[in-house]
Amino acid sequence: MKGRPINFKDFKKDWCDAMVYKPKDFDSFDQFMQDQYVIYKEDDPDAGCFEEMYNVKEFCEFFYPDADLDTHPYMIKSKAFNSKHVKGLIDLINRQIN
Q: Considering the entire predicted model, what is its pTM?
């Protein structure tokens, strides 16, 4: 839902639900999440705040449309299922769930 206040824990959960990612490829996944959360919550007097305009999934789609696991440690799940990474990503997702 757009415009709802969100804490870091919920942001991280929603981000992880929207993205396929390889935590081992991040130097510091928690720091990356903190940085993304700050961007999401930051209020720009001219542009507004992402939190007020987008839910976390939409935020990810806005920032990571070209992210591919060949070049990034993360990728939008909906795009990943239509990519060459499908088999490997399905295995990765299953490991995250289990």
A: 0.74
